Batch of 2 targets.
Target 1
Amino acid sequence: MAKDEIFKSEKSIAEDFRFTAQVAEVFDDMLARSVPNYQQVISMSAQILSKFLKPGDTVYDLGCSTGATLLELARQLGELDLKFCGIDNSPAMISKAVLKAEIYSKKEQVRFMEQDITEADISGAGAIILNYTLQFIRPMLRLEFLKKVHRALKPGGVLILSEKIISHDPQLNRAFIDFYYKFKREQGYSEIEISKKREALENVLIPFSSAENRKLLKEAGFSSIEPFFQWFNFSSFVAVK
Ligand code: GEK
């Protein structure tokens, strides 16, 4: 796996973060070292999906990046006869995802589409995964988008939503961010890399609080909503239609 050294160079220019070919190349390493408990959330999601899905159901992953989540879900839920579809608007991410599906011989079961998730046709979904991606959708558009996600699910279908979150309590917010930067240092990122990435994401990744995300899900129409995992400033919800 290529190592993420995007923000290592002293002279890398300050600009807003974008999902370019350079980022896609190192993205699996970036996620593994930047999202705490990434694999655990996927395995917990697989357990939830195995309870709610029926043979023939389709699982959509919106903002699928290089397909890591769907390919792992296809592996863990192999005996359930499910179909998987990943959607992302970064051409470089989708090319990587398609290549990985080929390498793991999963092309029949797992397909990938380059498209904007706010425009994609995802109707009739058994489950929708939206991991660390709603945070990149403009806040004003989030409710409308989640309503579309709700409409697209079959009755009884599930949404898995994972996000970076904030706390409106300044003391706890600061503490959780400090714990997160400690995690990143332990993953081998330097202070410079951490602060450059933070700057690049400043106007691009806009996190809500756990309560705000729950409220959005409720307003979008979901009846049962529960957080199933939280690590300081990262949280995952399951919501049932
Ligand atoms: C994972 N879920 O492995 N339409 C389509 N794709 C989008 C849009 C949009 N409007 N906005 C952002 N993206 C993955 C990780 S990464 C999270 C998701 C992160 C895509 C963008 O191209 C990128 O691949 C993904 O959303 C966000 O669990 O980088 O922090």
Target 2
Amino acid sequence: MKYSRPRGTQDILPPDIHIWRYVEGVFEATFERYGYEPIRTPIFESTDVFLRSVGENTDIVSKEMYTFADRGGRSITLRPENTAAVIRAYLENGLHRKGGTTRLSYIGPMFRYDRPQAGRYRQFHQVGSEVIGSLNPIFDVETIDVVMTALEALGFDDLVVKLNSVGCAECRKPYTELLRTELERLRDRLCEDCDERAMKNPMRVFDCKRCVDVKGDLPPISEHLCEGCAKHFAQVKSYLEAIDRHFEMDPRLVRGLDYYTRTTFEIIHSGLGAQNALCGGGRYDDLVAQCGGPPTPAVGFSAGIERIISVLPEESTAVATSGSGVDFYLICLDEESSARALQAARVLRAFGRIEIDASMRSLKKQLRNAERRGAAVTLIVENELPDRIKWKDMTKREQFEVDDDRLLEFAEAKLAGKRVGDE
Ligand code: HAM
């Protein structure tokens, strides 16, 4: 083999592609029921879009971005996440001028140069939503509810919602000072990176995979919230309870992106091992203003499709792949019958999915393939029957011979006139 795919990427082939489309379809249908509209933004953006929003001290920006200069010398980055890009599009296209809340959803590839392992890829896919324009905790809860509803529709029943509040700029100022003092005290237990983080952006220490032991000894932000943030968080929790959405408090859940304010959450699946988050999200009330827009609060989530599929319940996989075959399998036994095969296929396509087998292999082998493809009817064209087609009903085990020019009529009678798109 001369070429191979880049490390950390995947080819999605049939039949797996049917699982992907099924998962995406369930999310799309769920978004629709909650009044979300899809948005598509470019796969690459100016690097600036992500620098300050995601945060210069985060792992994503400092270690994982695919950044390069294009031929015009501009710094371009393959999007490592979509929230900052959606906000860029929201402002650039003047959606903020409409007022009220804007609900947007998206599905697409993201890129992070991370060490590939199970559940962690360099190109991966996220499905997500953003509600822009309201401080109301109702939307924090709706965000958790919309993703949980979609995941439940996919058959998951053992997920845990981890919840926290990281406060706002106001409560974070005194908290950051407190955290710095504590980190100074615990300095000899910090890794090299965290030693630096402690000065630059101390809350990032909570992301560190090496300083796990230290985290438990640090004061959690959720115990140092200002009055407004504490009230908001209490409302989020009470609304979640009101709709029977269970959650677990995780006072040290700060998430790996800088833009969060107040609510943060993750949805955890126990089957995932180290990369156990199916989904992450939260509120980011300062991002729109930081990007040059008017002060506009927002909240959203993103879920990793590869991770969802890796632990997808069996019944969903079965449903997703069940419709992946064909309705008709048309066997062409010799070259002379090729034109007739094309004509017959054209007639039958009005009634369903049809695959022509022009391999010229033995009839036995082709029939076996028809069965494998789940065809309800197999048709055979051959020179020995120059103007008639064999129609084999694979379930009833019946066989007919039909005149070429009466195929449409015969199909209509046999299939009760049911064409593609009929109810
Ligand atoms: P995130 O936590 O960085 O949040 O990513 C969300 C989800 O994407 C993760 O829970 C995981 O399932 C998946 N994911 C992340 N990195 C990888 C990877 N390298 N390979 C496979 N899957 C991965 C965000 O991206 C925020 N934009 C979420 C958000 C939306 N916050 C507000 N709105």
